[in-house]
Amino acid sequence: MKKRILLGTLIFLFGSLYNLSSYAENKNQFPKISGKNLENKEYNLPSGFEGKINLVFIAFLRDQQKDIDKWLPLAKTLSKKYETLRYYELPVLNETYARWFIDAGMKAGISDKSQREKTITIYTNKKKFLESLDISNEKEIQILLLDSNGKIIWSDKGDFSKNKADSLQTILSSKIEK
To answer: What is the pLDDT of residue 29?
Structure first.
């Protein structure tokens, strides 16, 4: 019995160390991390993002969904305007949470299958994830624009505003053709 507990503990520790070591040292680079969308497809990010340019909304708390929802009409419009742009929602949760329970709850709350496909849940060491992207706190959503290699080419945080939307559209129009 003691050997099983020791073996389980070692596997957990080595798995945690591997997960932590995969974070990028470069604060202008999205970290290498894996997650599953709400349709159970696995992604290895950032290479798994499917666009030439990817707009990523990162949430840390449940009530931040309302902030992402304010950005989604713009994201949908921009993804129609720029065929190489994709957008994603990334709820980031501590690795200790019950994945199946949380994912099932989120899936039940999103009736649109295409939106579930764009929602990739990340279970990780949240503190290390925040540090890897130089995010000082989890009180606001983070909005990142990434190139196909995961390099951050634009970022902002918080609630939707016309100024933030204009800034995003300006950088997009300079980076990709219609």
So the answer is: 95
Kindly provide the b/e burial profile for residues 70-100, where b requires at least 16 CB atoms within 10 angstroms of the residue's own CB: ebeebbeebbeebeebbbbbbbbbeeeeeee
Phi and psi dihedrals of 27, rounded to 5? -70, -10
Pairing mode, if any, of strands 120-124 and 85-94? parallel
CA–CA distances in Å: residue 130 to residues 50, 63, 147: 23, 18, 20
First to last CA, the chain: 62
Using the structure block, give the residue that is written with the tokens 């990523």: 56
CA 112 to chain centre: 19
Other beta carbons less than 10 A from residue 4's beta carbon: 8
User: Can you give the pTM of this predicted structure?
Assistant: 0.81
